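Work Package 4 report. The design task specified in the project plan requires that, given a folded chain encoded as structure tokens, an amino acid be chosen for each position. We show below one input record used in the internal validation round.
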């Protein structure tokens, strides 16, 4: 079953909030000291409303039978070169979510395919993202989509 990919519109805000809740719940289960759950859907709608109006950011929507079944929130990043690094132009994925009932049906791959087309057409060098260490399903999916680890982010909680 194919899905349609398009940019988010204000009419999608409630669906985006509902899907973001699925991601947030997963994150809160793994990292309750970092992630809030449940989330305030009104605030999430306001956030996405701001994102879709902000230059340099967008949210791609995956639709099946006129229902929103996934989204991908990305931003453009252009970094000047330095003495240590080359200049870089990339699209950075802040969030991706596919409705839990739609996973494994090609929705996430369709979102990434659309993003890759945007990146190539826009002259970007790469698409980047990060994922939480405990989210092994996401890591597996991202590798299937051609992403490779480049950095390892470590943290240490300070005790009182």
């Amino acid at each position: 079953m194919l899905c349609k990919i398009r940019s988010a519109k204000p009419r999608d805000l409630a669906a985006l909030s509902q899907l973001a809740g699925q991601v947030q719940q997963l994150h809160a289960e793994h990292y309750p000291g970092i992630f809030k759950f449940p989330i305030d859907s009104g605030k999430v709608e306001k956030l996405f409303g701001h994102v879709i109006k902000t230059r340099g950011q967008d949210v791609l929507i995956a639709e099946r039978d006129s229902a929103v079944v996934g989204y991908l929130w990305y931003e453009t990043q252009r970094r000047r070169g330095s003495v240590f690094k080359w200049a870089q132009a990339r699209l950075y994925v802040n969030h991706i979510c596919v409705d839990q009932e739609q996973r494994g049906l090609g929705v996430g791959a369709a979102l990434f395919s659309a993003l890759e087309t945007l990146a190539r057409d826009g002259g970007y060098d790469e698409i980047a993202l990060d994922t939480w260490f405990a989210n092994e399903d996401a890591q597996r999916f991202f590798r299937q989509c051609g992403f490779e680890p480049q950095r390892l982010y470590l943290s240490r909680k300070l005790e009182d």
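Helices lie at 13-30, 41-53, 107-122, 136-144. Validation will be extended to a larger panel in the next phase.
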